Amino acid sequence: MTTGLPTQTQVIELLGEEFARAGYEIEDVVIDPRARPPRITVIADGDTALDLDTIATLSRSASTLLDGLDSHPYLLEVSSPGVERPLTSEKHFRRARGRKVELSLADGSQLTGRVGQTRDDAVALVVRDGRDWVVRDVPLAGIVKAVVQVEFSPPPRAELELAGVYAKRSDHSDEEERG
């Protein structure tokens, strides 16, 4: 049965270069022909956060490119992966720098901490050690599952500094610690 909509592969091929120019890559494309109107969701991620202005710009570009196809009407959504997405690759950990994560390790233990720098196939994780914060290098190969945790209050500055990220300033810019 044909849906009259582009395929996932067509969407990725058509939009991939445009998203890459903007500094993002397409993580997934979900096509729901049963929705009314049918829905095409493009999930993108990059080393910088996908803000509302960028989403609007990418949506306009994607819409223009997809409108060139001879397809049925559809609703287009562009979004980021969301916090429930598990971290499964080095780039996911790099992009989650400064975020709190819960890890399940290959030895069966659990570890919760803040993502620091990712290098040499390991992630630096800021964890509690008594009353202090310490940095523990965790090999990526030893991580079975990693999920970003939702936080409702700002983390302590000392924890963010160990992760290599300063707290957000009032002008909404992020600064990274350079060492």
From TrEMBL:
Record keywords, A-Z: Cytoplasm, Ribosome biogenesis
Sequence similarity: Belongs to the RimP family.
Intracellular or extracellular location(s): Cytoplasm
Keyword Cytoplasm: yes
Purpose: Required for maturation of 30S ribosomal subunits.
GO cellular component, one term: cytosol
Protein name listed in UniProt: Ribosome maturation factor RimP
GO biological process, one term: translation
Organism, scientific name: Mycobacterium conspicuum
InterPro entries: Ribosome_maturation_RimP, RimP_C, RimP_C_sf, RimP_N, RimP_N_sf
SUPFAM superfamilies with a match to the protein in the record: YhbC-like, C-terminal domain (SSF74942), YhbC-like, N-terminal domain (SSF75420)
